Amino acid sequence: MGFKKIEVFTVNPWDKQPDENAEQYNAFVMYRDADPKIPTEKVAAHYHKSTEWAAKLCTARRWVERREKWTEYQGKLTTEELVSGIPKMRKTHTDIATSMLVKALKALQKLPIEEMSPRDISTMVDVAAKLERISRGEVTERRESKTEIAGELKVTNLDLSDLSDDELNRLDEIVSKIPPA
């Protein structure tokens, strides 16, 4: 019951190897493809062989390594398939977005301005601005970072005449929170 040990794979490790008969290869395929991974004893039982037969075959024919190579190969195929699908996905999404925008534009053109609430207008401006930023490759959100700067600030010739009452009140609130020097 001696099996010729595979020293070098002359074909893909997961394929039938030279000097490997159909029964031996099918036993390997059962071992390779079992999910969850099965022990060699179950392969032996399936073929009505001894556990020694399966263990020796597993060692001589390098089943563990072949299964690992098969798993790597399958992972590579999956990755390639996913990556190759990205351009198609982008085109599909672009086509859908274009169709939606055309319909939205037609609906907007029919909508009387008098029927729009300030909230409707604000939402449209916000969505349109984000859409424009995305289409131009700009960021859609900015995160504020606060850095404390030590020192003195002098303001001279500050003209506040163009500010509204609300803006002036807000400025007053901000300035009142600054601790005296």
Describe the structure.
The protein is an all-alpha fold and 181 residues long. It has six helices and no strands. The protein has a domain at 9-113. It has helices at 22-33, 40-46, 51-60, 63-110, 118-135, 165-176. Helix 1 (22-33) crosses helix 4 (63-110). The longest helix has 48 residues, at 63-110. It starts with 21 loop residues before the first helix and ends in a 5-residue tail after the last helix. The model has no long low-confidence stretch (mean pLDDT 85).
What is the topology?
Layout (H helix, E strand, L loop, with lengths): L21 H12 L6 H7 L4 H10 L2 H48 L7 H18 L29 H12 L5
Question: Which tags fit this structure?
Answer:
181 residues, mainly alpha, 6 helices
Quick rundown:
With 181 residues, this protein is an all-alpha fold.
Question: Number of DSSP helices?
Answer: 6
The coarse silhouette is elongated
Radius of gyration: 35 Å
Low confidence ranges? none
Mean pLDDT reading: 85
Helix content: 55-70%
DSSP, total strands: 0
Task: Give the helix/strand class.
Answer: mainly alpha
Straight-line distance between termini: 94 Å
Order of helices and strands: HHHHHH
**Main sheet properties:** none
Into which percentage range does the β-strand content fall?
A: under 5%
Oligomer: single chain
